[in-house]
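Risk register update: the risk of archive-format incompatibility is retired. Evidence:
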Amino acid sequence: MSLVKRQKVEEENHDDTSYEALVFEGHEGPVITAKFSGDGKFVASGGLDRQILLWVLPNEAIETETEASIGSISGHKNGITSLMWSSDDSHLYSSSADSTLALWDLETGKKLLKFQGHKSIVNQLDLDSQMASVGDDGKCLIWDPRSKHPVASIETNYPLTSVVVADNRVYFSGIDPTIHAYDLRDTEKSLWEETVHKDTVTSLSLNESTLFSSSQDGTLRSYDAQAFVAQGISRVKPEIYADLDTGTENFLLRSTVNRAGDRLFCGSADKTVTVWDVHSARIVSKLASQSGTIIDVDLHPTENILLSTSVDGTILIREY
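Archived output:
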């Protein structure tokens, strides 16, 4: 698939080039989250306006961004904080500041399940064979995606902001910047814990056996995510990805790593997507995006295409 380019935006980065981008507009207020579908043909976005909007990526039959908008879903009573597509792209999972999660049928727009268990804002969900969610109540809840009640609960003393689940393991962190790792088959005891950040961890992302964290302290770090590491070997990798502009708005700026595992992308208060080389830990580009803080980023499943969401109410899609 090739991206049909629409809007030219001047960009200041290391090679001082300009680029063209597709901009989706429809939310009223900040767009907190957006995700590509598994087949890469669609985008789902969620905002403080409580709306989930659905978009189709451009092709020769789509002439305008307005035509790319294919539907909206409403039903949450507060802002949408994160989204995940089902494995067959027929359903969508959402988390919300209204303390619930939901499962939506994308053909009918109807809510199929309401997941209840958190007592406060749900900050993020992630989905593998099981689903995990974290919230301001300090809980990491584990769910069977087909059941509305949690199957396990891991409790901490401080709000949790980010979670990743994969291969029967869950990783989470929050206001207390300790990163926790658990085996989903035994949540009574953690596999490992690490504390290297000096402020809230706002995002976690995983690439094979490497876990990445980003923090309001302006840095990103990486870890060996395996259950066990050899004695005398540090789980924390030495690279420090520095100079992230986290701003003063207190949004949870999300990050992600590409499929090759050699580029790290993160939203920034300087209105760019900041990109680091994983191996050298150097910033290789600042991709100019929207007119406000960049909150969330996601990468297309097969192409070198990036989306970013912003406090300015837009979703921007561009090649990188």
